[in-house]
Structures are given as structure tokens and as C-alpha cells.
Amino acid sequence: MKILFVEDSALLRRSMVKVAEERGFKTVEAENGAEALARLRKHGTSIDVIVMDWNMPVMDGFAALKKVRSNSDYDKIPVLMATSDGVQEDVVMAIRAGAAGYLVKPFTLDALVGKISEILGYRPGKHR
Amino acid sequence: MGKIIHIANGEIAEQMLDQRVGSASDGTIFPECRIQEDLLQVFASAAEEVLAISYGAIASRRESYWIAHNPRMMGEVTGWMRLGGSVRGVAAISLNWDLARTLAACLACMSPDELEEIDILDGIGELVNQISGRARTLLSEQGSDLTIDLPELRTEVGQGMPPPTPDTCYAVVFECLGHRFALQFCVEVKQAQLRPV
């Protein structure tokens, strides 16, 4: 299973990648929404889930989410919003825009991997 | 005489400054009044929660201070955010480089020695971002009209608070991983909401 992590904090992104790889996932990284779209063009549907921050420079996560959902090449890839924005209206807005899940910071890395696995219907030992 | 506390190089250094007595001219906060307890509690809870969950660090509250006359950022690394709505001003989290390095290493799951300065600022930027986001969530749940702008970072001890700031500032000092950091609030409260001590 391959995860695209979209997060502008390099430190946080690094730790998310590290824990995901320790659990057997393959990973791809992007530091904003525009880079995420570029990664999708390159990796296509080999990406199984996108973990997306919201507040990022260049292109924020909500704008990127809408672009992913409106592109028939990627619109089946689930997007998990992982953001410090927990205001209810924003959560609703993201779900209505097609987010598969919403995780509010602060969260532990175990909680993140658990949420990813839940979205993927992932069971240990069952990965390509 | 009043006191201002600086947090630098792992030590607390004290300086004595003149303290302005009485009210400021335009009805901003009176030195002898408390800022709204709810606002302080929101930011303090947000800081404690973020540090515990994202950074694996426990923060304990220690002292509280009023700083009068030209409040400054207390630590070597400060993340600040502008507040708007019924309360107007600045909230800031201020710490020293040693604590900043340690916390950044916690976030990155790396050794502190492996980090460059840019990594430390990244880690503290993320800390302040998460605290402001959590505070915003808590305030919206309370039905507050307070707005919190995206945070910024500064790296100079004793730098003045960004405008608009009143002449007084309330600081709460915490202890975390053997170091101290401060939450500073420089806010104007609408006259009707002032509560005397």
C-alpha cells in the first residue's frame, strides 16, 4: 500500500513517513497541494490513500482535495484530512467536498496509522 | 517597582522595570485587572494538550505575572498570533533554544543533535500552529467570536510585541522537560468585559 503525505512541516512529514514505513507502507511526500497534484500525475493510481494537511502555502489542502475529487484519474483515491483545524463547519465542508476522513491535530502517530488502516480496510500482513 | 522575566539560555534572568500605575488612557486593560479567565484557560489547555499528544511532553503551570510598560517577547524563540473579535491583541508562546530543540526532536522522532536551526524553527512553527488550531476549535465550541490569525515566528529575546498591543501583558510560565516557557497575552478587553481583581 502506498501513502501520499501532504504536509508543509518537513519535520512532521518525516515522522509520519517514518512510522508508516515501519508499518510496511510505501510512501510519497509533498509539501503543499500543488506538489501533491504533481506527485499524483507521476504515481497515478499506485497511490492508495492521501493524507492531507489543510493550511499550506502555494495550494492549501482543501483546494487540493477539490482538484483530486474532480479528476477522474484520481477521484477514487481516498483523502484523509489531517489538520489542526477542528472547527465543525470546516470538518463538514471537507467531508462534503469528498474527504474520506478527518483527523484533527494533535494526534499520535499510532492514531494516524490506525485511521489510515481503517480507511484502507487494511489488515496486518495483507499488503502489496 | 515591577518585574519583567526573561527566559534565556535555560535560566531565568530578572530585570526591574518601572511599572505604570493606574489605567491606560483609552480604556485598555488595567494593570490590576485580570484578563478573562476563559481565554487563558483555552490557550493553556491547548498548549498542554498539544505538547502531551504530538510531542510526548508534559507541561506544568508555575507562575503568573503581570508585565507592565512596553511588554516584550520573553524567550529566544517566540510564536505569536494576532487575536480579534471581542478581545483584540496578541497571544504568544515563548521558549529558549534548548527547549525548542528538544521539542522539535520529539516531533521528528530524532536525536536533538541531528537537527539544524531550520528544523528547530519548523518544529516550533508546527507547535504554535497546532496550539492555535486547538485553541480556535475550543473557542468555536464555546460560541466565542474570537478570531486567531495564522501564527508567525520570531527569534530575538526582548523583541517588542507586534501591534496593536496595550502597555500591559499577562504571562503564564510553564515548566516542560526541565525548561521553562511562557504563554503571553497582550490584549485589549472591551470596557464592559473588564473584571476587577
Question: What's the structural blueprint in terms of helices and strands?
Answer:
The complex is a heterodimer of chains A (128) and B (197).
Chain A lengths: L1 E5 L3 H13 L3 E5 L2 H11 L5 E4 L8 H9 L9 E5 L4 H9 L4 E4 L4 H12 L8
Helix pairs in contact in A: 1-5, 2-3
Chain B lengths: L1 E7 L2 E7 L15 E2 L2 H18 L4 E10 L8 E8 L2 E9 L1 H12 L8 H25 L5 E2 L3 E3 L13 E9 L2 E11 L5 E2 L1
Helix pairs in contact in B: 1-3, 2-3
Structural features, described:
The complex is a heterodimer of chains A (128) and B (197). With 128 residues, chain A is of the alpha/beta class. Chain A contains 5 helices and 5 strands. Chain A has a 5-stranded parallel beta sheet with strand order 2-1-3-4-5, with helices on both faces. Chain A starts with a strand and ends in an 8-residue tail after the last helix. Residues 123-128 of chain A have low confidence and may be disordered. Chain B is an alpha+beta fold. Chain B is built from 3 helices and 11 strands, in the order βββαβββααβββββ. Chain B has helices at residues 37-54, 97-108, 117-141, and strands spanning 2-8, 11-17, 33-34, 59-68, 77-84, 87-95, 147-148, 152-154, 168-176, 179-189, 195-196. The longest helix of chain B has 25 residues, at 117-141. The two termini of chain B are 20 Å apart. Residues 1-33 and 191-197 of chain B have low confidence and may be disordered. Classes of the chains: A alpha/beta (128), B alpha+beta (197). The interface between A and B is medium-sized, with 21 and 25 residues.
